[in-house]
Amino acid sequence: MIMQTIFHPNMTNHIITFYHFPLSPPSRAALLFLKALGIKHSLKIVNLLSGEQNSSEFLKINPFHTVPAIDDGGFFVYDSSIIMKYLSKQYAKDDSLFPNDPKSGTLVEERMYFSSNYLFPKLREYFVPVLFENTQPSTEKAKHFEEYMKLLDQFLENEIWIAGKNLTMADFSIITIISTAEAIMFQINKYPNVAAWYKRAKEAMASFGYEEVNQAGADEFGNLFKSKLEQRA
Length: 233
Description:
Layout: E1 15-20, H1 25-37, E2 40-45, H2 56-61, E3 69-72, E4 75-78, H3 80-91, H4 102-132, H5 139-155, H6 169-183, H7 192-204, H8 210-232
Parallel strand pairs: 1-2
Antiparallel strand pairs: 1-3, 3-4
Helix pairs in contact: 1-3, 1-6, 1-8, 4-5, 4-6, 6-8
């Protein structure tokens, strides 16, 4: 299924500044979401590997040193989940990406919480030592991540999307994690429900610039990870 851009900003000439690092899965999620909304933006790359997140200029935007972050006319927002909520409430033409209905909206938030507090932290615990601590991948940490992959597969049992019957911001949040995991050699096909959703979601997000925004960044991340492994072989 190929979806066209279906959400548009209230102010067609309005431009948001988006602070981004392509290797960051949360940053890719928020940027892909912004593109899905059709919001005009100015992209500023913050190179986390060279410490640009610690500059005095960036700390005025986000004192927590992380990407993504946005500057919406002097209103600063950081954390990918919060950015997506804000953009949906402020600029989406309807509430399908983040439902106003309490039960539907809560399900989306539950899945976002799962993404940001469980799934991604476990993946990060696996790759950070390889990238920055000169160690080999930990089998034990890989197993910890895969436990949450099994849970995600259960969430998707008889479901089309991550949180309900429609594509929501939860799908954007999780797809960048899954693509990064695949790029560092986790076998996504071990989880049939995840694999089927992954294929659907990539097709649905193609018109939002999925390949350019997310897949290219995931591939770059995978190449960096593999190069670290080769250096230690």
